[in-house]
Amino acid sequence: MRLKLLEQKIFRILMIGASCLVLGVLLMIVYALLRRGLPALSWEMITTVPGGGFYLGKEGGLLNAIVGSLMIMAGATILSLALSVPVVMFLNLYLDKTSRLAYLVRLSFDVLLGVPSIVYGAFGFMVMVFLGLRASLTGGMIVVSLLIFPIMARAMDEVAAMFPKEMKEATLSLGATKFEMVRVVLRQIAPGIATACLLSVGRAIGDAAAVLFTAGYTDSIPTSPGQPAATLPLAIFFQLSSPVPQVQDRAYAAALILTIIVLVLSVLSRWFAHKYQKNKVS
Amino acid sequence: MNRTSVRVFLSRAAGGYMFLATMLALMLLLVIASGLFVKAYPILKQSSLWSLLTGAVWAPIRGFFGFLPFISGTLWVTGIAIVLALPVSLLTGIYLSEYAPSSVRKIAFSALDILSGIPPVVYGAWGVLVVVPFIAEWVAPYFVEYSSGYSVLSAGIVLGIMIIPLLVSLFGEVFSTVPKEIRDSALSLGATSWQTTKKVVLKSSLPGIFAATVLAISRALGETIAVLMVCGNVVQIPASLLDAGYPLPALIANNYGEMASLPGYEAALMLAALILLGIVIVFNTLSRILLLRIGRKYALQP
Amino acid sequence: MIATSLSSVLLREEVSAPLELLHAPNMDAATLKVRNLNVHIGEQSILRDVHVHIPSHKITCIIGPSGCGKSTLLKTFNRLLETQPGARITGELLLNGENIYREGVEVIDVRKRMGLLSQRPCPLPMSVYENIAFGCRLHGTRGRRKVMRKVVHYLQATGLWDEVRDRLHTPASRLSIGQQQRLCLARGLAVEPEIILADEATSALDPISSRIIEDLFLRLRQQYTIIMVTHTLSQAVRIADHVIFMYLGRVVEEGPASEVLHHPKHKLTQEYLSGSFS
Ligand SMILES: Nc1ncnc2c1ncn2[C@@H]1O[C@H](COP(=O)(O)OP(=O)(O)OP(=O)(O)O)[C@@H](O)[C@H]1O
Ligand SMILES: [Mg+2]
User: Fold this and answer.
1) Tens digit of each residue's pLDDT (9 = 90 or more) over B103-160
2) Please, are residues B91 and A19 in contact by the beta-carbon 8 Å criterion?
3) In the CATH scheme, what is the homologous superfamily, with its name and number, of domain B53-298?
4) Which ligand approaches the C-alpha of residue C62 most closely?
């Protein structure tokens, strides 16, 4: 009996230790980022594009990467919405709950969700080479939209599945067709769609592997869809490989900016999800 | 046509369009796989898949494409990551779902949320800043004469931290499937709470733990940028934890620029992507089926 | 905002126009005859050999113990049941002599001709105004002015206008449950049906709100055929003209309210009415 109690005690300590370790690691990461990145963070960094000699530590900022990332995210979100909304509506309005096809499609979402972003990147690059396209804003948008499609579709499918049966019957009773019902469903799950978008953007904005070959990199802000675009993750990656300490510092500052953007997105999506729970018409 | 038939037609047409979109989504995986296969075909025609997978020599200029260094690099890094992350996640998962007071749980889940949200490139940057010097200065000197710190161990540590949030949340789901009555009855039989956890909760969720681990492995296998930044990228079969390695995703990422220049190079890289895709699909499907079988809705984890 | 200003214009004009201005139902219309109706869901038989005749411009109450198939019968009337996976429906349902299950009949037309009011009010996730306008627009009412006129009209018809005239553009889910149910009724009426189907439409409401709905039904009877399911016998006594008593998927007794409720012929009906089972 005493042995049992001892075992219990040991494991309790181990469990608390493990939890503290996880928390500690987070604190370590945050501390390291702040210590190295905060001093290099300046207004100039987020309001100017790289000047001459930027990569040797001279003046300039990362506006190109910030704007590039935002542009790619916006484009990818729109593209991905354009595909996932019809798919989710088809799954939930036109197919039965027991449909084989629906099961297969949902399974494929799950598998797509697990496909590494580098594979999307490689595939995208291959297609672009095949079509004779350069690395560009458009290329980045398309590949990132592929990357976020399963995330978005799955999240949206989950809220669409909760569309109340009574509301479906009420809508049909008015003599609406399935297609006319789409409007009602979209209204009802609008907050869920917003959450799905924020969730996928938060995931995609930090992904470097997908944009590495498809979006390219440039020091200026792209003015047409055919031009290459810089992205924050790549800005971090490239600057970190520089031997110049100031440039490396800026990489950490950029990492800080990226982390803040991602966290804000995550908090927003959580807030939306929470609000949605409260205001749901049932 | 009257109004009604127009509306019915519109609804049908929209349905057709949506069906096409759905088919497109369904085909996506197939298209990716077959596209990669077509591109990888030239090299598969030259030599057998087996000899490619087991070949140790990687010399694109001379036309040697042996993937063994990269496969072993991937295995090392993923293996280390799982070995490090599994016990920590399991203990944390048990603690959070069985013992922790709700205030602690709240803090811990927020922390895990943040951890899972941090972009890979930031993990990589942190690895370069903290883990690599730590290995080089504090760990390596005890074992080898010199190590830069860029090693499979560093990569494994960084990757291990990255998959902890996924593991903990999956474990939490798995444990929550164990009915409360079973726990209560074990407790009322005089078992200590740890005894109950070990004999009842852990035992009955073993398949779930296994499935969650497989899912985490498949996620870890494909991680690119964070690993690439700290693993050293030396084409060799790592012989120890402190050796540099070169996992498959890093191979693809590092060599894109020059890939068109050599015959067979592009095919080799596409084959690498195809191998990665194949492993991930198999692992993913396996764990999904397992998780579904134990009646769980998998966690929504990006 | 435009809609609001329009509504104030309309207020001064002719909002109090009688119902007939907007909708003049055919006085002979809206009889419903059910012949040999059988419903199965999966392997289970839910309705068996149902024959009923529902007279026009009357309130027909369907009563019977829980689970006897009242809701199912109502849903076969507007062909909502066929959206249920595994549902099989055989038999004839004649709306003004025309079988609505006949090949070539458009479901959406059938549904438009029957307004369904469910047990729990279910406003659509839109504003009060949009809730009514949605149905109007589906069936071809175009133009803000026309839509607004209908919205105002049916809100008045259901006695809701004075309560919501300042909140036309707030979400419908903010109304009280009783108001929501009247909104649902207005929404249903706005697509100009011939028959109103109400499935325990007052059971979620407080006594005052249910009285309001009952009174509405009594007034609407002049223009519509009303079929309602109720569990409250006193309600049936108050408003029914015609009564159908169901038991285990069969229609046991059917006839004028005075006969079925006060002089039931069948033993099961007598037992049900005397409260031997619920
Ligand atoms: N989807 C379904 N699958 C199988 N059986 C069903 C389904 N829907 C209803 N039923 C069965 O059909 C029978 C009639 O159901 P219905 O809802 O019409 O009863 P009801 O008379 O409206 O009852 P209540 O007064 O409780 O509302 C019940 O026995 C019910 O179990
Ligand atoms: Mg019912």
Assistant:
1) 999 999 999 999 999 999 999 999 999 999 999 999 888 888 888 899 999 999 999 9
2) yes
3) MetI-like (1.10.3720.10)
4) 1
